[in-house]
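Justification of computing resources. Each target in the renewal requires a structure prediction run like the one illustrated here; the chain below, 151 residues long, is used simply to show the kind of job we budget for.
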Amino acid sequence: MVPGEWVLLSYRLPREPSTPRIATWRKLKRLGVAQLNDGLVALPDDAHTREQLEWLAAEIVEAGGTATTWLARPGTVAIGRELAEELKAARAAEYDAIRQEAEQTGGLGAAARRAAKKRLRAELHRVGRRDYFPTPERGLAHDAVAAIVDE
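Resulting structure tokens:
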């Protein structure tokens, strides 16, 4: 499914101090945005993503920058598909890394396997919050983490 509308955040932060720039970058990464251009990111439009980008815009303004949010519809269906595919590919890579790590826990001791399983479950949760277009890799990662023997 490709959304008809996307919520965009256009922003600019001063170079110094660098702390707000780094914090903004981390928050955008945590949200799993599609980077359209320098200072322009997009997420599929829904109440949650709109709220998240509006809050971030307010934080940017408080830090001395400029920020606005927009609702936009891509000029063509193909552009919308490309954005969705970009987000899907990023999440698929994250899920694949989790799956690979889960599959490598067999040689660990029981305590290390339990710790790895707990950590990977938390990582699955974090990735899942920014997974707007689920992929087959999602299920594979969940299965691999569930299969870790934690006795």
